[in-house]
Amino acid sequence: MRQDHQYILELIEPNSRVLDLGCGDGELLSLLIEKKNCRAAGIEIDEKEIYKCVERGVTVSHGDIDSGLSDYSDKRFDYVILNESLQEVLNPDKVIAEALRVGKKAIVGIPNFCNLNARLQIFCWGKVPVTEGLPYKWYNTPNLRFLSIKDFRDFCAERNIIIEQECALNSKGKVRFAHNLFSETAIFLIHK
Amino acid sequence: MSDLQIIETQYFTFANPPHEITLKCGVKFGPITLAYETYGKLNADKSNAILIFHALTGDAHAAGYHKDVKDPGWWEPMIGKGRAFDTDKYFIICANVIGGCKGSTGPSSINPSTGKPYGLSFPVITIEDMVVTQKHLIDHLGIKKLLAAAGGSMGGLMALEWSVRYPDTLQSAILIAANYKHTAQQIALHEVARQAIMSDPNWSKGDYYGKELPAQGMSVSRMIGHITYMSERSMEEKFGRKLQDKEKVGYDFSHDFEVESYLRYRGASFVQRFDANSYLYLSKALDYFDLSEGSDLVGAFKGVKNKFLIITFTSDWLYPSYQSKDMVRAMKANDIDVSFIEIDTNYGHDSFLVEIEGQSKLVKSFLNNLK
Q1: Do A61 and B333 touch (CB under 8 A)?
Q2: CB contact under 8 A, B339 and A55
Q3: How far is CA B271 from the centre of its chain?
Q4: A73·B333 Cβ contact <8 A
Q5: Chain B residues within 8 A of A48 when measuring between CB atoms
Q6: A51–chain B nearest CA distance, Å
Q7: Cβ of A54 and B328 within 8 Å?
C-alpha cells in the first residue's frame, strides 16, 4: 500500500462519509470502503481514470474540482480528501473553503516543493528542481501551484483553519523533524 | 449475440376490457400487446433480470438474429456472451414500447372495436405510459426486482422514469445519452420532423393505411433526425465535401454531395421500416417528458433508491451533457449513489449505438460490482 494512503487510512474513523477530490483510479476510495467501511465517492477529471474507478466498484463523478462542490450541502461528509490534487487546481483558496464547507474535516496531501534536494538543485545548478516526488520538467508539469509545508501552514493560519495533524513523508517513511527540509510530501488533517 | 442464436419475438397481451389501464392523458385503454425478446436465462431466484429500453425508432429486437434476416438487433455489440450485458450471467429483456410499430400496440394496430387501424384515434401516450405498460410485462414474467434497467436516448428516459416510479423494483439504472426533460430546441426539432410528415398530402390526417404512404414527409423527417444524431465533426469526417458519382458539381438540383445522397437513402429506407403515425406519437411522448414537472428536479428524485450509472458523450448536441450533469447534481442532493462519465467522442448522439468500447467497459464493470 502507498504510504500516503496508509497514513490517510489511519486518520479516518471507520464508517465515515468521505469525498475524494481528484480520486485518480479510485485506489484510496476502495481501501476506505474495504478497510474502514466508509461510504465514499470521488470526483476525477481524467476520463481514463473513471473506467478504473468503475471497475473497482467505486462511485465516481467525471468532473473538475475547480467547478465547485455546489452539489453538496454543508457538512455532508466527515472527510473531504484532496491528496496530491490541490497543486493542480486553479483556485486553491476556493477549493479548500468548499472542502471545509461540505466536509467536517479535510485531509490535504501536498508535494513539498522546498525540500532539501529541490533547494540544492536551485542553489547549485540554478535550475528548476526535478526530484523523485516532483518528476516533471517546467514544460510538462501538471502542477499549477508550487508550495511548501510552511506555505501551507501560513495559508491555514491566515484563514483560521486549524491543523489537527501534520505528517511529513519521504521515500524512507515518516519524517520526524524539520519537515519542510526533509520531506517530499505532507498530509494535513484540517478543520475550520 | 456472438453465438448467432436465432431469436423469436414473443407477445404479451393485457389490459383486456374491462381491465383497461388509464393512460396519463386520462384515456382508459386496452387491450395492449407488447412485443418483447429475451436473451440469456432467468435464474432460479429471478434476480438476474435486466430490462433494456430502446430509443425512438428502435424495437424489441435488441440482439441476436431473426430467422432469414441478415442484420442483427440494434444493440448487438453490447448484448451477448461475454459482452457488456453478458447473456451467460444475465437475463435480458427488451420490449417494443406502446405506440410503436414493431409488434406492440400502436397507431398502426387494428382497433378491435372497429376492425380498422387506430390511426389518430390512438390515445396520446407518454414516457410514463411506456414504463407502466412494461411493468405489466415484468410482473407477468414473475420478476419482483430488476438487477438493472438500461437504455440510451429515449431508453434512458424510460430507465429514469422507472427509477422514480417503481423504486422498490430495481437495483440500478444505466442512463446513456439521456436527459430528464425535453428542452425548447429538442421540442422544436421534433416539431419540424412532425410537420414534415403532417404536411405530406398522403398523410391524410393519419388515415393512410392500405393507401399511398406519406413517404416524402417521412423521409424528410428522418433526414432531420439523422442530422441531429450526428455531430458536425463526424459528418465532416464521414462525408466532407465528397461528391456522389460525380467528378464535378452539376450546378443543378440533383444531388451533388455524398451527404445529400446519404440522407436521401436514410430517409427512403425509413419509410419502409417505420410507421409515420408512430413517429408522431413517440416524438410527442418525448416532448411531453419532464421529470422535474417544470420546477423541482431535486424533489423529483425523492424516494429513489437505486444506483445509477450515467454516461454522456462530448459531441452529443441533441442531448447535451449539461442536462445529465444537472440530473447528477439533483441525485447527489438526494444522497443517491450515482457515477457519471462524459466520454470524449465525435459520434454525436448516435454514440450510444456506435461507441461500444468505452460503454462496454463501464457497463460490464458497473454490473459486476452490483451486490
Answers
A1: no
A2: no
A3: 18
A4: yes
A5: none
A6: 6
A7: no
Q: Does A47 touch chain B (CB under 8 A)?
A: yes
Question: pLDDT tens-digit profile of B142-189?
Answer: 999 999 999 999 999 999 999 999 999 999 999 999 999 999 999 999
Annotated catalytic residue B108: no
Interface subset of A 151-190, CB within 8 angstroms of B: none
Q: Angle at Cα B136 formed by Cα B132 and Cα B140, nearest 5°?
A: 165
Single out the catalytic residue among B104, B109, B153, B324. B153
In a 3-state reduction of DSSP, which class is residue A97?
Answer: helix
Residue B349 annotated among the catalytic residues of the structure: yes
Q: Could you confirm whether B190 is annotated as catalytic?
A: no
Q: Which one of A62, A64, A76 would you mutate to disrupt binding with B, by most B Cβ within 10 Å of its Cβ?
A: A62
Which residues, other chains included, contact B34 with Cβ-Cβ below 8 Å and sequence gap of 6+? B11, B12, B13, B95, B96, B98, B103, B104, B105, B133, B134, B136, B137
What cell was used for B139? 410482473
B154 and B57 Cβ atoms separated by less than 8 Å: no
Distance CA(B142)–CA(B140), nearest Å, equals 5
Average pLDDT over residues A71-75: 89
Say what the pTM is: 0.95
Residue A168 reports pLDDT greater than 80:
yes
Contact A106, A100 (CB under 8 A): yes
Between A and B, how many residue pairs show a Cβ–Cβ distance under 8 A?
Answer: 53
Nearest residue in B to A71, CA atom? B329
A149-177 burial: b if 16+ Cβ within 10 Å, else e: bebbbebbeeeebeeeebbbbbeeeebee
Pick the catalytic residue from B163, B321, B349, B350: B349
| Residue indicated by cell numbers 502542477 | A143
**pLDDT value at residue B3:** 53
| CB of A37 less than 8 A from some CB of B | no
Instruction: Establish whether this prediction's ipTM goes over 0.95.
Output: no
Q: What is the 3-state secondary structure (H, E, C) of chain B?
A: CCCCCECCCEEEEECCCCCCEECCCCCEECCEEEEEEEECCCCCCCCCEEEEECCCCCCCCCCCECCCCCCCCCCHHHEECCCCEECCCCEEEEECCCCCCCCCCCCCCEECCCCEECHHHCCCCCHHHHHHHHHHHHHHCCCCCECEEEEECHHHHHHHHHHHHCHHHECEEEEECCCCECCHHHHHHHHHHHHHHHCCHHHHHHCCCCCCCCHHHHHHHHHHHHHHHCCHHHHHHHCCCCECCCCCCCCCCCCCEHHHHHHHHHHHHHHHHCCHHHHHHHHHHHHHCECCCCCCHHHHCCCCCCEEEEEEECCCCCCCHHHHHHHHHHHHHCCCCEEEEEECCCCHHHHHHHCHHHHHHHHHHHHHCCC
Contact status of A61 with chain B (Cβ, < 8 Å): yes
Give the mutation candidate from A34, A37, A49, A55 for the B interface (greatest B CB count, under 10 A): A55
d(CA A172, CA A174): 7
Q: CB burial class (10 A; 0-12, 13-18, 19+) of residue A15?
A: exposed
